[in-house]
Write a structure and sequence with these properties.
Number of helices: 11
Bound molecules: adenosine-5-diphosphoribose, P-hydroxybenzoic acid
Order of helices and strands: EHEHEHHEEEHEHEEEEEEEEHEEEEHHHH
Strand content: 25-35%
Shape: globular
Distance between the termini: 31 Å
Largest sheet: 8 strands, mixed
Amino acid sequence: MHIQVGIIGAGPAGLLLARMLHLQGISSVVLESRSRPYVESRIRAGLLEQGSVDLLTETGMADRLYKEAMVHEGIELVFDGQRHRIDITALTGRKVYIYGQQEVVKDMIVANLAAGVPILFEAQASEISGLEGERATIRYTHEGKEEVLTCDYIAGCDGFHGICRDAIPPQLMRGHDRIYPFGWLGILADAPPTRDELLYCRHDNGFALFTMRSPTVSRCYIQVPPDEDAENWSDDQIWSELETRLGKHEGLTISTGKITQKSVTAMRSYVAEPMRHGRLFLAGDSAHIVPPTGAKGMNLAISDIYVLSKALVAFYKKNDASLFETYGATCLRRIWRAQHFSWWMTSMLHNLPDASPFDAKRQVAELYTIATSKAGQTLLAENYVGLPFET
Ligand code: APR
Ligand code: PHB
């Protein structure tokens, strides 16, 4: 079978690309190694920038989001026994939306399948080739059979552990990596959110984040050692640690409830350059990952696809291949700024295992600098709400 664009991976990146190409009459097939129930229930982050929501709206995939998402106009920084609100909407005119990534994925799957865009679940791509030739080839296994798909272009939307990044010759590829000496223990709990906005807390015991999924479900994270086993933490210990890190902040009492899910995520910053090799384009987590402190992972996947879809549409509609040449550089400008923001938020709010008392005091001073200055708050707000999409 020959198709215009072969897409590997049915995460937010691959599914959004399939939708955007379909709306322009460009054919694609999405190959996804996991089952549909698996990708629809995988718990990931859940904060969408205004620009991401605008793109989901333009592509007709935001109906349920507008009914169910929680719209946020600010966040609170909690440190040194105090709470400081950053009024994101007053500072930027924009908002952010809490809506779980798996809900975004469900909406994208429904929209694509309803339009007849093929998504093959349990289709594992094993090899891609022909990237420098006349056409590209994807070998994959589906329903126990070895299959071959040829395409004009391949979108490598297969996440951090996929196969596409490794198909770029190693002598051309440079990976920029930073591994943090801590992880996040994340929980979902049947507990109403402690506050109606997100709380980012710095404490001498480590970082804590209070976020949410609905008026009855809280999502909370605490900084733990990177190799921590979530099973080492009883529910009581988790609530007690959240209470310690957040407690005593101007009378806040945390709301507790039954913990329904818990897992530990390692924290890493990574950028692959280049993002294109011949007929292959990397997008989303296959090309970069960020620590979740800045809530940028899903939003970067969406902004990459905005740039890639424009390049593919220019080629197929106007026979203009110039945007292929600039794809990587355009994405990477925004990616590096999001990398910086994610690193900055992470370094400002987490305890390094070897931090000295000087480091702790400096960190608190930095938080005061940001929280008490309009310029500081604006810098944080502009980055948090998301930089403009470019092409
Ligand atoms: N063949 C087919 N599918 C594959 C293969 C393969 N060889 N390898 C990986 N995949 C699939 C994975 O199962 C996954 O569903 O590719 C998909 C990649 O999706 P995501 O990991 O969600 O990546 P992306 O679409 O770039 O979205 C980035 O995900 O991890 C979060 O924080 C991250 O929010 C960000 C978002
Ligand atoms: C989430 O809701 O899961 C979330 C929100 C903000 C973050 C990270 C995770 O910075």
